[in-house]
Amino acid sequence: MDEKRLVKTSKMLSRILRHEPERVGITLDGAGWVRIDALLAALAAKGNRLTRADLDHVVATNNKRRFGYSADGLSIRANQGHTVAVDLGLTATVPPPVLYHGTADRHLASIFREGLLPMARQDVHLSADTETAVRVGARHGRPVVLTVNAAAMAAAGHEFRISENGVWLTEAVPPQYLSRRP
């Protein structure tokens, strides 16, 4: 699979497995899983032929590790980022003292007023390193990295979870736990 098709397929799978499973006529279970044979058949019915080998390649080479297979290898799901209601079954975990969030500078006024909110997603996404936060922020405009005082949030009772691909998730980040990284 060439790079262009790989990226296009990854974006399509993200859209289907995170946001619009009905677009191809599939239903995710309560934990976000769908049987691979059902997904491939639904895609083929919509004119998008994808083989299991193609799917394996996308899952194995996606630099963001967006997708995961079930233990038996028969189902697939997005690791995080859902706008459809799913319970990924992630347990609360003690976060590192500091986490980061990448955004665009045009959003700073509302973020420092309201905090970080999940918007259409189920959770706010945070990263453990600034490099990832810069990449995320750059997708939305001129990147700005915010530092999240995760230790103080956890001490105040906020829950953190970590997805299979290393993205830290929390319900929201109130503004008092945020600062702009120089």
Automatic annotation (TrEMBL):
Record-linked SUPFAM superfamilies: ADP-ribosylation (SSF56399)
Domain of life from the UniProt record: Bacteria
UniProt-listed Enzyme Commission number(s): 2.7.1.-
Principal EC category: transferase
A molecular function (GO) term: NAD+ poly-ADP-ribosyltransferase activity
Stored Gene3D superfamilies: 3.20.170.30, RNA 2'-phosphotransferase, Tpt1/KptA family, N-terminal domain
Keyword Lipid biosynthesis assigned: no
Biological processes annotated in GO: tRNA splicing, via endonucleolytic cleavage and ligation
Keywords linked to the UniProt accession: NAD, Transferase
Function: Removes the 2'-phosphate from RNA via an intermediate in which the phosphate is ADP-ribosylated by NAD followed by a presumed transesterification to release the RNA and generate ADP-ribose 1''-2''-cyclic phosphate (APPR>P). May function as an ADP-ribosylase.
Family: Belongs to the KptA/TPT1 family.
Full protein name: Probable RNA 2'-phosphotransferase
Species, as recorded: Streptomyces kaniharaensis
